Amino acid sequence: MSELLQKITDVKVWHIRVPVVSTRSHGIGDIEGGFEVVLLRLTTEGGQEGWGEAACWSVFTGSPEASYYALSRYLRPLILGRMVSERERIIGTALYAIAHATEAKAALESALLDLEGKILNQPVWALFGQKSQARIPLSVSIANPDFEEDKQLLQKISADGVRLIKLKTGFKSHQFDIMRCEYIRKYHPELSLRVDFNQGLEAEEGVSRTLDLATFEPDFIEQPVRAHDYETMAKINRQCPVLLLADESVFGPEDVKKAISQNIAGGVSIKVMKSGGIKRARKTAQIAAKAGWSCYGGDMHETGLGHLPGVHLIASCPEITLGCEFYHARYYVIEDILSTKFPIDEGHVVVPDSPGLGFSPDIEKIDALSLK
Ligand SMILES: [Mg+2]
Prior knowledge:
single chain; alpha/beta; Enolase-like, domain 1; TIM Barrel; three-stranded antiparallel beta sheet; 13 helices; 39% helix; 21% strand; binds magnesium ion
């Protein structure tokens, strides 16, 4: 389309630290004080701007420093001077120009799609097909090592209409996990419970502790043991009466094929940051669903800008049926970077229909949080 024959004339990258309201613990590490993300802005010769975020976690996907240099040093020369119409080719080259760095590649795809949508006057989801979901059920994670604070969060989100929660487990003691499950079941029967160990269990305790929490009948239990321990995942999957989800064990389409063949789970957490963009995330979900697996819309520690590609992914991907966890922008960061509030209403994320990603960040807020 001729409108897309616009050259990209500027590539700007920020590394920012986003303050958060509380400490959160996970099987593989804690978030204290804030989390770091890398932002990308592409500008065209016509003055149009496209935005992307690389949401990194050093113990999971990679470091923000790696994303910063992936974008500013290794991918920048592949982008500058290219046409917006060359999105597929730019992303195809980026895939092999630097190994891993999936979050940086996701940020690049997001910024190119944002540009394309804005120029064509279409939301990003429409660039992939029909909208299959307009309101996505929202899950909020319960992960504070101080459970008294999480009791207040449970009351607040319940009053806001949230009906899905994910309890982060495997970072303190098994008794702490059981006590919290009992509390939630007793005092919040209105909430659907999910459990996520984030690899927190040792292989030898993986089966027994997962089966203990399965007695609380959560919708699913996610990633009890280490990402590469497919053998123990498969063993748990054979014995667990509750749906087992793979998260850290499956990054993209290549992993999910292997995971299916080894029967390590019955579902997968699909994340734009793990797969390296919406297109590869869709492919992962499609392969999983074809094998009879369930798909969930996961995220990293993201701002509202980082959530948006995931929202457009799920809107256009009927295979993702278990809701999403894009709660950070409204329930975890002290102040989000978007100019307007990330769209959550009565426990659902509302899919935007405005052009591109649908929302833009506030440049003053970004500059105030910038580390370099
Ligand atoms: Mg997880």
